[in-house]
Amino acid sequence: MAMDAWEQDQKWVFTLEEKIAETLKRLDRRGEDVRPRLVDTTMQYAPISGGVKRYLRSKSDWLGQHRTGVRHALLVPGKRTRVRGDRTVTVAAPKVPFGAGYRWPMSRKSWSTWLQALNPALIEAGDPYGPGVAAIEAGQNLGVPVIGFCHSDPAYLASLHWGQWAVKPIEKRWGEIFGQFDRVIAPSRFIAGRLREAGVERIVERPLGVDIEAFHPDHGDRDCVRRDLGVRPGERLLVFAGRAAKEKNVDVIISAVEKLGAPYRLLLIGAADGLPIEGGQVISLPFQQDTASIARFLASCDAFVHANDKEPFGLCALEAMASGLPVVCTSSGGVSETVDEAVGVRSASLKVADYASAIEALFEHDIEAMSRAARRRAVTRYGWSTVFEELCMVYAEVSGVRAFVEAGEGTNPTAH
Asked: What SS3 string covers 34-96?
């Protein structure tokens, strides 16, 4: 006999509660761990996702080493509901069509339930979509603060994919959601300005960072890499690594390199899907999951090229700088705030002629001096330890949890 709707709903709730209970056993070591917990949640987490995923993984590792008085958990979409390791919970969600592996959580209510069950002292939401709204709801129900980290500009992305008609309604909704967070972290002045335009207050500017040990000039294997790629001696090897997304303007970079011709070559890592690269100037490699592999390629090139003039921050450019590469970028967006004349060249516009001129101008400078300056800037300003120390000060201020600014061990180091 078929169950009626109420019985089906109760079975679903019971199943959800069972899954949560089993998850908490693994994360909390059967209730023995009572340290305050930071929970990060976002849908911007996929097998080939970029900066957001690297930021979250790096933060989780850093907290485990340097803030032993707090726990950390990630709540993100996945193929199935399960615990991965001792910090990451994936909740089953369907893939976004043509979404490069990203998944869209279907039930805000169940997502909020998961967040509340994790018993956070502080929640950080990395998007204004379902997980972000669920985080606000969970924070209100629990009486704990919620921080929003603005990793992207949905209104701009909407204009690219749907047209200008979509900008105003999405910007309005974006502003409404981010306006409900207790604090909003902006990784650049550019994004902070866009948030203010949307009516958001309580903004704190904090940059992303880079693993200065994983990305290092010494990790290059210049002769071997160039030989394997078919790059001849004397050729100038430019590189861009990232997703093949429209806003990256990779077509501008390709056209600029083709306009310049010899001795310039362009290496695209994970960014060539659907782009015309039939000419001999461009070399295409697939997305590299392994950090050591991408670090090896970066440190074996001459310069990094980036053409997104609306980039929220540009973690890939920072990883290139840590690898000792000067950068060619546009004159606006987050990357332009990291790059100046000491470490690179900014193109006057996105016109192919201007971008090609910027590439030529870079090689008129002392490239070795710029490489050293790029590495030095990454180390002194953007090492993850520096970035997370400053971020933890924000966490402590918003939550009242002193353990965020204390490096020692403890079982219950909260002070509200």
From this structure: CCCEEEEECCCCCCCCCHHHHHHHHHHHHHHHHCCCCEEEEEEEECCCEEECCCEEEEECCEC
pTM: 0.87
Output b/e per residue, 284-297; b: 16+ Cβ within 10 A. Answer: ebebbeeeeebbbb
Helix/strand/coil percent split, the chain, to 5: 45, 15, 40
- Specify whether the CB–CB gap between 384 and 62 falls below 8 A: yes
| 2-49: pLDDT as tens digits | 444 434 444 444 466 667 777 776 676 655 778 999 999 999 887 766
CB 241 within 8 A of CB 257: no
SS3 3: coil
C-alpha 63/C-alpha 407 separation (Å) is 9
Task: Compute the distance between CA of residue 338 and CA of residue 313 in angstroms, rounded to an integer.
Answer: 8
Distance of alpha carbon 205 from alpha carbon 186, whole angstroms: 5
Residue 286 C-alpha from the chain's centroid = 19
Dist. CA 377–CA 380, nearest whole Å: 5
